[in-house]
């Protein structure tokens, strides 16, 4: 029953019913959207969390944007490495803004030398201290942010044009995730907060916000959030057990293994690997739980039936969905680590030993642990939704 403008009840036979119910639904979904936009703005504008000085280890360097001024400076006859491998750059930002420097090119720009660079090209220049104490200035990579910004703009336009208000809500949810990771998660991690509880808290917050934005303040959204949290707990427990059994080393985390926190402690690498597994499963968990909750809601609306019957019918849909999402998770991890996987496979060693290599074993653990959490979240969400919507269906009959 909806309420009329004068406070009375509007029944389905009233001509204003069809207009009043969608209006109330839109209002219910607009409120979380506005709240999320405000939260994103507040988090983005708030002062950065102070982490203190971080020791980055032997690979410490600074990086600044610069512009190529002279792509072919005179060759130093006493330095054989300078043969066509140096350029003159002008720093565009940082403490050296406006200053020039001779930089060694370390990127592949069509060749190993500087021949691919032209005057006016924007690049990233790294400045580090060598073992002999001398300063090393090097062009490390092209400046890609303008192209990336254009891609982000195209993505946003496509989402809004195709998805409409739903696409806009999804973009706001994505923005919330980005600012939470950049402004809270990583700074708190570098401040010494344990990675696993932090990852679970972030996952729950992002999940709740995203589902509320896309589904609104509805029973479907509440059931999906509860199912996703259950899946996250399962994933976290299983990830902890498996990671302890396979004994990953700190090298699996790459260069961050050399970071030293202001307290003098190193990062909790094993905890970070666990956090990565938990966060990696969040997106697919959302998809599975929302789909199952919506499926049960639709079944109960079209064919009112008790919870047990609803659960059986919805599980048929869920089983088909699981097969696709598990493969999606695996392909996402393969795509992220494809160069390393190719290198490992071409190394001449037995196939089983290749599988034993840490970089490959880590992807196997991520895929399987995440998939188990997703698979178990499906019947959990289905059972919860069947209990909620089945009770409603029986009451309406």
What does this structure look like?
With 397 residues, this protein is an alpha+beta fold. It has two domains: 59-144, Beta Barrel (OB fold (Dihydrolipoamide Acetyltransferase, E2P)), CATH 2.40.50; 165-396, Multidrug efflux transporter AcrB transmembrane fold (Up-down Bundle), CATH 1.20.1640. The chain is 61% helix and 10% strand. It contains nine helices and seven strands; from the N terminus they run ββαβββββαααααααα. The strands form two sheets. A five-stranded mixed β-barrel has the order 3-4-5-7-6. A two-stranded antiparallel ribbon has the order 1-2. It is elongated. The two termini are 16 Å apart. Residues 1-23 and 109-113 have low confidence and may be disordered.
Keywords:
397 residues, alpha+beta, Multidrug efflux transporter AcrB transmembrane fold, 2 domains, five-stranded mixed beta barrel, 7 strands, 61% helix
Q: How big a fraction of the residues is strand? A: 5-15%
The helix count comes to 9
* Count of all domains: 2
Shape: elongated
End-to-end separation: 16 Å
**How many β-strand stretches?**
7
- The level 1 CATH classification of the largest domain is Mainly Alpha
Mean pLDDT: 74
> What is the radius of gyration?
27 Å
């Amino acid at each position: 029953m909806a309420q009329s403008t004068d406070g009375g009840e509007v029944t389905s036979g009233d001509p204003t019913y069809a207009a009043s119910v969608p209006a109330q639904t839109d209002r219910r979904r607009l409120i979380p959207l506005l709240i999320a936009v405000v939260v994103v703005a507040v988090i983005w504008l708030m002062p950065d969390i102070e982490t203190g000085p971080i020791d980055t280890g032997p690979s410490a360097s600074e990086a600044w944007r610069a512009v190529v001024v002279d792509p072919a400076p005179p060759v130093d006859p006493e330095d054989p490495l300078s043969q066509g491998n140096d350029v003159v750059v002008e720093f565009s930002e940082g403490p050296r803004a406006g200053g020039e420097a001779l930089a060694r090119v370390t990127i592949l720009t069509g060749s190993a030398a500087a021949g691919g660079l032209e005057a006016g090209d924007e690049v990233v220049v790294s400045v580090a201290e060598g073992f002999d104490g001398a300063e090393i200035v090097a062009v490390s990579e092209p400046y890609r942010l303008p192209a990336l910004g254009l891609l982000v703009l195209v993505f946003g336009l496509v989402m809004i044009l195709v998805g409409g208000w739903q696409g806009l809500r999804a973009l706001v949810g994505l923005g919330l995730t980005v600012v939470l990771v950049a402004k809270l998660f990583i700074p708190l991690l570098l401040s010494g907060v344990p990675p696993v509880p932090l990852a679970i808290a972030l996952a729950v917050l992002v999940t709740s916000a995203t589902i509320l934005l896309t589904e609104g303040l509805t029973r479907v959204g509440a059931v999906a959030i509860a199912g996703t949290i259950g899946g996250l707990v399962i994933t976290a427990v299983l990830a902890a057990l498996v990671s302890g059994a396979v004994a990953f080393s700190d090298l699996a985390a790459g260069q961050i293994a050399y970071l030293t926190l202001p307290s003098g402690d190193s990062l909790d690498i094993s905890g970070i690997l666990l956090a990565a597994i938990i966060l990696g499963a969040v997106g697919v968990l959302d998809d599975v739980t929302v789909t199952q909750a919506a499926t049960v809601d639709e079944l109960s609306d079209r064919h009112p039936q008790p919870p047990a019957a609803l659960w059986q019918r919805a599980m048929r849909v869920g089983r088909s969905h699981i097969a696709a999402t598990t493969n999606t998770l695996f392909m996402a991890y393969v795509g992220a680590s494809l160069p390393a996987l190719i290198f490992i496979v071409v190394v001449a060693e037995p196939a089983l030993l290749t599988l034993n290599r840490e970089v490959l074993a880590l992807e196997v653990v991520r895929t399987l642990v995440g998939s188990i959490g997703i698979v178990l979240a499906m019947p959990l969400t289905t059972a919860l939704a069947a209990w909620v919507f089945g009770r409603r269906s029986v009451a309406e009959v």
